[in-house]
Design goal:
The protein is α/β, with parallel strands linked by helices. It is built from five helices and five strands.
């Protein structure tokens, strides 16, 4: 039985390069993993005043993360950090205090950007947050995909560069082992 992995894409843009990366990761994952993108565009802003009767979108998001065995984050970098929409989803999932849906779930971080350093700042800011959330996060190999553009992908969405696809396939194999090692039994 494959392990369920929630994939959270930090960009909600329709033609997001990071969504294309996530779709490639889904295809490249070993059969022991079943990856599904958990949408964050409809997760309303966190407001502790609403916690007594949480909005339906919060409950739906939290339930999807609860059902997952692991979480894979695929994110661009905005101003050397994660996009606000991703931070909001993390805040919603981590509350109320002591009831985080992320607690103990193995995690992976893949970042990509149009810039040369491939979202390094976002990747490391996110890792700090995941450490606080008690998510054992895969350290190696690190994934920073730089110079992402429309030219990075074939018309079917796959990577033009076979070395990139091979690297990501190996990453997913390592992630599968990491997840197996750290998954709650």
């Amino acid at each position: 039985m494959p392990h369920n992995v929630a994939v959270i894409v930090g960009s909600i843009r329709k033609d997001s390069f990071n969504r294309k990366v996530a779709l490639n990761l889904i295809k490249l994952a070993p059969a022991s993993l079943k990856l599904e993108i958990v949408e964050i565009a409809g997760v309303s802003f966190f407001n502790q005043d609403l916690e007594a009767t949480p909005p339906a979108d919060w409950t739906a998001f939290r339930n999807k993360i609860k059902a997952a065995d692991a979480v894979l984050f695929v994110t661009p970098e905005y101003n050397r950090s994660v996009p606000g929409v991703l931070k909001n989803a993390i805040d919603v999932g981590s509350r109320p205090y002591g009831q985080s849906v992320f607690d103990g779930k193995p995690a992976g971080v893949v970042s990509g950007s149009m810039g040369a350093i491939g979202g390094f700042g976002a990747n490391h800011h996110l890792r700090q947050t995941l450490a606080y959330l008690n998510m054992p996060t895969l350290g190696q190999p690190e994934v920073y995909l730089g110079a992402l553009s429309e030219d990075s992908f074939e018309t079917d969405g796959s990577f033009k560069n076979a070395k990139t696809a091979d690297f990501l396939k190996k990453y997913m194999e390592v992630f599968a082992g990491w997840m197996e090692k750290h998954a709650r039994k």
